[in-house]
Amino acid sequence: MQVPATELVTEKGSVPFADLDDLFRREVEPIISDGYVSAAHKETTRYLFIIGGKPYSAAVESPLGGKTTSIKEFFTFCKTVERVDLRAVKADKKILLCMLVRLGKRPAKEALSDAVNMEDLVRKIEEQAKDIIVVTESDEGLGFAIFIRGKAAFVHLPGAGETTIEKLLLYCYERGRQRPFKIKVYTNIKVVHAPDSEPFPDEGVATHYTKGTPDAWVELYDEGGEQIGKFPLVEELRIGRDPDNEIHLSDRMVSRHHAVIRYCEGRFVAEDLASTNGTFHNGSRITTLELGDGDELNIVGFRLRFRSPRRSAEESGTAEQAPDLASQTFYADGSEKKSLVPSAALYMNDGSVHPLGSITTIGKGEDSDIRVDGMLMAKRHAVIIRGKDRFTVLKKAVLAPVKVNGRKVTEHPLSDGDVIEVGPLKMTFKG
Among residues 93, 120, 167, 278, which one has the fewest Cβ atoms lying within 10 Å of its Cβ? Predict the structure, then answer.
């Protein structure tokens, strides 16, 4: 999937792990304040997000899906596969927010573009007055729209860069019906830095994140209390009787695939895999459990102690805390951004006045905001959209024309006093 970039800094194929420290020192650290580095190997791509000139978070995307990870995992992956195709780019912080949400969160809604009425979706978002991100995934690349308290705050489309909400609606209407693409709606857009986020170290970032004690590990003890193993936890540890598990428990009472401990969205979670004899914590059988430093699991006489001193420090408040990325980007001054568009209305020939909201639909459909009849009229014939600093009228139908001041238009920004004609209906824009 083509990912947006503000400026390509460097792109190199088959970069050996041993070269990463030097490459970051020369071509990433002094150049990228906000951006990301992608490391691709076969069908898997890892992302390192840089915000404010330091590593902020990381994520992975593969045919199995995406998720956020620790920064350590990004460099451990590079070391494990030995060579990666590397790409470093500058990117707007708002794009980074969208990428992290897309990779790390589950969408509240997902559908193909030919089954989504984007105008109705935008209207509902405004009515809800919530922070929401809409992502489009087409063969042209990714598109993003950020709504803050229901108002469109940022729109980025493939091939167009940063643009307007009007262009998003046109893109979904025209491009989305010809070659349908995925539209995903995310209602949880809170993103925080990875537990191991810190400034670039002097010794070299790749060396730093792949040496020494892991950020989290599991200690394995037998029934007599003797430690019989220590297992670093980067992405996940599978536990069971089958030898392919990272923690192999050779006991017939243990299921072949008994349990797993995963790092997911900044949390370490233990999950029982429907085992026969169960996974226990403090005497209670669990299905899933978020783990804290020192928590112990019991599996058929084996005791597994989870350790994560760094996470424990963060939770106790001794580690630096940062606001989520959306708050940093849009609420830096603690106040709500106000619309630059003044109140506006359509003055009809019969003397009535129709105030304009974020989207006003015109047509013969019963659900249209302004009804207009006629043989050539479509159910959704035209739409007037409130953008960041203006209103725009868009023609949606094929037959009867839409005119502004006597001229046929398909898309036209409105000015105070413009006369709009949709079929037999004539109205004057004031705003």
Answer: 120
pTM higher than the cut 0.70 = no
CB atoms within 10 A of CB 329: 20
Confidence of residue 319 (pLDDT cuts 50, 70, 90): very low
Through-space distance between the first and last CA atoms of the chain, rounded to whole angstroms: 41
